[in-house]
Write a structure and sequence with these properties.
Rossmann fold; four-stranded antiparallel beta sheet; two-stranded antiparallel ribbon; 24% helix
Length: 121
């Protein structure tokens, strides 16, 4: 499996829309790269979005079955109206996209993820 894109909108400390595209320069030709930045910049949030999409949990926070994660505010950036968490990856030459979007739907989608479903396009 190779992650090709991460798109985030209003998740944890990453307010606004952000894309990390591994199929564009400078990441395309990078053999190795580091995720660096000050505390609170969103480094761990990138990993949170990946584990949320792939494994149905955020290990540093805990499982979605815990009472803290039942509150949508523990994932979505404070004072924002919408959210997006999207991972695109290639496996066996097939591109797969997993996403959660729109704060009104976000909680229902998280509930489906807790029950084992995933969203594919």
């Amino acid at each position: 499996m190779k992650i090709t894109k991460i798109a985030i909108k209003n998740i944890h400390s990453l307010k606004g829309f952000h894309i990390v595209n591994f199929e564009e320069e400078p990441l395309l030709s990078a053999g190795l790269f580091a995720i660096i930045g000050p505390t609170g910049a969103g480094k761990s949030t990138l990993l949170d979005v990946i584990t949320l999409a792939l494994f149905n949990k955020i290990p540093r926070i805990g499982s979605f079955s815990t009472p803290e994660m039942e509150k949508i505010g523990s994932v979505v950036t404070h004072n924002t109206d919408d959210a997006l968490a999207e991972i695109e990856y290639v496996i066996f030459k097939k591109k797969i996209q997993i996403y959660l979007e729109d704060s009104k739907k976000f909680e229902r989608q998280l509930e489906r993820l807790r029950n084992g479903s995933r969203f594919f396009t």
